[in-house]
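Input sequence (851 aa), recorded before submission:
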Amino acid sequence: MMKYFSLLAAWLLLCGAVLAENPASGLAPGQWTAERARAWYAAQPWLVGCNFLPSTAVNDIEMWQADTFDVATIERELGWARELGFNSVRVFLNYVVWEADAAGLNERFQRFLEIAARQGISVMPVLLDDCNFAGREAKAGPQPDPVPGVHNSQWVSSPPLRMVTQRGDWAQLERYVKELIGTFGQDRRVVAWDLYNEPGNSGMGQRSLPLVEAAFAWARETNPDQPLTVGVWTDFDGEMSRRMFALSDVVSFHAYDDPQGVRHKIALCDEFERPVLCTEWLRRQTGNTFENLLPVFDEHHVGCYHWGLVAGRTQTYYPWGSAQDAPEPAQWQHDLFRGDGSPFSQTEWSFIKAYFGRLLAVVTEVVPTARREAVTWRYTLDDPGEGWSEPGFNDTAWREGAAPFGKLEPGIGRVPRTEWTSNSIWLRRVFTLPADRLDELWLTMHFDEDPEVYVNGILAAAPEKWSDRYQEIAISPAARASLNEGHNTLAVRCRQTWGGQFIDVGIGSRQTVPEQADEGGGRWSADRAWRWYDAQAWPCGFNYVPANAISYTEMWMDYAFDPVLIERELELAHEVGFNCIRVVLPFVVWEAEPAAFNKRLATLLEICGRHGIRVMPTLFDDCVFGSIRDPVFGRQPAVVEGWYANGWTPSPGHSLVRDAATWSRLEKYVKDVVATFKDNPQVWIWDLYNEPTNGGLGDVSLPLVERVFEWAREVNPSQPLTVGQWNGNARLNEIIYRHSDVITFHDYGGAEHLASHIADLQRQGRPLVCTEWLNRGRGSIVADCLPIFRRRTVGCMHWGLVNGKTQTHLNWGHRPGEPDPPVWQHDLFRSDHTPYEPSEIALFRRMIGMW
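Predicted structure, token format:
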């Protein structure tokens, strides 16, 4: 599980607290504190990318000189990087290019930042470098062609190695460092400065350390907004390496080792309690591969930049030390793509895209769960004693029952076939696997709570707490190794301590699926969805009901629709940095006065446009929190103090949902609203139906979900369509995943639950936006969850801005006379616009502002 940083001290620092510099602290003058560095890192996405050089450049001099700066290739190849899911690149600048043409280098670097930003890619520049594969002095001008078959044959240092020790030349190096960082040190497109690559390489040894020290001092005199680093690459306990660690704002390192060696280096870097970046890796011959290391970097919250994107004039796909005229190696060392954009390894390409949620991964149940039809297990409610999970255990005295087992909870898709209400249940089942289905196997489970699952007597998984849906759980290596094509035994124990209870288990085989092209007039392709998502800022906003409205129905009534109040509240949102809102549109108001309703919606969109906020309209909603099942046009109920959302109304209303004969009215509504605003730039996404099956409707809602997608598609909106996944109803979720252009979801659980939910939904291969979250009493809190959304670049829209007539600061189900909860459930501001919790507002501002 990923690490979560404690952010409070950092937010206080960044929001105005003044900390006096303490010489005894061990910090160099101007160096960031560890708290500031961690706060900066928590506000970044997971930094994943490559060391980038266009394939047409033989070294960094050729990349940046005016005659060979290849904009078309840079555009094309950074596009391939983003399509994989990369969001950052590390690029080498060279002193001799600056010396010959400082203004030109600045102009071309500015152009590079523009190209990268259009792809949603940040940049880490490298200023100095001791690596000199070519064995000659760096000089501006035309560069030699590569030596055929030789790895990086024309790479040269920056500056020429003689200048590293000739301090009389350092005045020019100081100007170089200060001019570049002074020019771009407040540019948000630059994510960090890597001041010196591999100091001491090319035989320089300790002689490079004084220049390392000087480079840090020069850079800090310019006071950049970005952190500084120099990556440790050899002898991690040596004097120069320890000094590089000590001077860096964020720790960075190079790791071409086997996976165990990489883990060891991460552990050494973690000792400094600062963010960690691996700025060079990928050496396939040693097992230093994406398949082996992406999960390691992810687990340890380490940003990572592998070496090389497109095979080209550097020839870094050859191994170090390759001989002249060597044939292309069967196993490339670095690089991912050939010059035509085809991957070196299709399997590796699929793994990367799937890992970043950009490729559909389908799980086929080879040992079925009971989602679609009954599955028989043997079970007991009495402790069976030792050996109950072993294949040879005698379970003939146990009862037989059909899964799932548990208590009825249709609201979250739990409909057991066998009732289970005791404190524990033990289950056993024998299954056979086909010989071609022994790889890529995962447990498929819906559980509540604390299950233990054994395969052939070996513990396969023991996920903690509970799930609200079926999800894939990794099988332990030992249990996976025990599987065979003959008979196997699956044994499960599940517990019950409080709340719901439910258990169903199967085994699935996960496989990636090739991308599909756009279906004309139909669902967007995943590629189109990602191009749309990558072109915008990280979405961060909220579900909006003005404080003067008891429900969305009242919000849109003529007597309550208040543009002045909306303007004031959205100005408050703008000051935080929020860039999107979600609002439900009530069918009952549209049907009574469609023209007036559309005019009010246009007014809301205009107000949002003035504040840089996009709108996600929601057309239908099954939710009920009071007694209203069918809304009425006109004045809405009065507030009942102490009752959470007592006047909430569904849309269109449960009677209309149940009566398909009335749906021509609903079709007219959907088509009119979507057609009217289908090209409005302030409309962000169409959320067609909030929480279908809620309010006791169950599967009655499912046909309407299918139809609303059809109706909206017929008017061909320019915006994507979605319905949010919110519970474990397998039939509903299948419809959602089949039709949605982008995947939206609700999650009111804590940080671990959220991280697991995101990982599960990434299998859909499409952009993710969480359209409801924030329940402080259940652990869905800003300090823990917002960094997860940011790190995964998942859009997020919490519930509530200003506390008002909906009373959503109370808990669901709260009734008059009950004591107020110890913490607010939703909402950020009190009615006087003072924040409920100032540290939450500071965190939102910091994270949104970093984009």
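Checked by second reader. The radius of gyration is 29 Å.
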